[in-house]
Amino acid sequence: MCRPAHFEVVYAINPWMDPEKPVDTALAVLQWERLHDLYLSLGHTVDLIDPVPGLPDMVYAANGATVVDGRVLGASFRNAQRRPEGPAYLAWFEQHGYTERHEARHVNEGEGDFLVTDSFVLAGHGFRSDVRSHQEAQSFFGRPVIGLELVDPRYYHLDTALAVLAGDEIMYNPDAFAPSSLKVLRSLFPDALPVSAADAAVFGLNAVSDGLNVVLPEAAGELCALLRARGFHPIGMDLSELLKGGGSVKCCTLEIRH
């Protein structure tokens, strides 16, 4: 995770960002700290990367890399404003002893567009990540990568349209995907939880699950009820200030899979 000490919205690279809308950085830090402390209370280890002045979106740690089996695939950002984040995150992994690192050749925005189930790496494209990054990830991780085309600009990253709950159990917003990708999802994940447009619109799918506890935006009320019915323990969080930059729970969380 990365403390949003320098968080602000001074440019617009997704439909959620409006530089004319006031941002309360102190409130963003407070909301982030509550998420950080929640992870600790649930028994998780949280590593921190130092925020870099001039990189206001660095708080969205999920975009910084993808880590599978201790192997680190670095991120390469499409937008110039975020490009320095990739080397900063890769340097953190080098400093912390991760020897298997790969500097991306093609644009990929980390776990924004790479989500890992037991059987697959699900890979989004259409707005940010280059489809060529899918083969690059497959070669590096040695796992099958399933490409999924996103079609709604509000859900510009895969982690705003789909979340992994446990194993090969997922939830997703059907409206966010091209018909061909929706067909793939229905074939591979017939028991997936479909999420309503209303819950998707409050970033309900930008969630983090440890297999039991599902941390998600508290505004996704209907989704919380559906998760309880499936045996999960949903925990709602208010990250409304960070949503002004186009991110929520998952965006703030990079999972390190050893």
Automatic annotation (TrEMBL):
Single annotated GO MF: transferase activity
Assigned keywords, A-Z: Transferase
GO annotation, biological process: L-arginine deiminase pathway
Keyword Repeat: no
Protein's name in the database: Amidinotransferase
